[in-house]
Amino acid sequence: MSESEERKVESGERKKEKGPSAAPAMIAKARTYVARLIWIVCVLAALVLAVGALLIALGANQDNGLVRGVLNLADTADLNLFSRTNGIKEFGPPDAATKNALFNWGIGALVWLVVGRIVAGIVRPRS
After folding, report:
1. Which terminus of the chain, N or C, has less C-beta within 10 A?
2. Which stretches within the chain are classed as H helix?
3. Are 90 and 100 contacting, i.e. CB atoms less than 8 angstroms apart?
4. What is the CA radius of gyration of the chain?
């Protein structure tokens, strides 16, 4: 091993011995991962609401297992605040179910995206 390689090894060992200096970098990395996870969860919730609204607007067969699963996920993601049956705004006939789903779940999807971006921005470390 050459002299320069020995110096690199020694300096690397010294860095490893200084444990507390590595802690802020590890915390920043963990906060970055948590911020990404928060953003991914919020985007997925918004996507489920948007797809659920689209399925209702297209008149998809709600007896189908996949459609029923997406609608159940959307009912969970709307947090009962943006519900298609008792949401922010309730429309009357004709096509009340479609209008309710598009409006309430659309607003819910936007809220998920905005809140997710804000929370992820708060959690993400500043560089």
Report:
1. C
2. 3-17, 19-57, 65-77, 96-100, 106-123
3. yes
4. 24
Distance CA 43, CA 12 (A): 40
Q: How confident is the model at residue 84 (pLDDT cuts 50, 70, 90)?
A: confident
- Distance from C-alpha of 22 to C-alpha of 15, rounded to nearest angstrom: 8
CA distance 33 to 48: 22
Output the six-digit token pair for 102: 């598009």
Taking the C-alpha atoms of residue 77 and residue 71, their distance in angstroms, rounded to an integer, is 10
Q: Are 107 and 88 in contact (CB under 8 A)?
A: yes
Q: Which amino acid is at 19?
A: G
Model's pTM, two decimal places? Answer: 0.77
d(CA 91, CA 16): 64
Centre a 10 Å sphere on the Cβ of residue 12 and count the other Cβ atoms it contains: 10
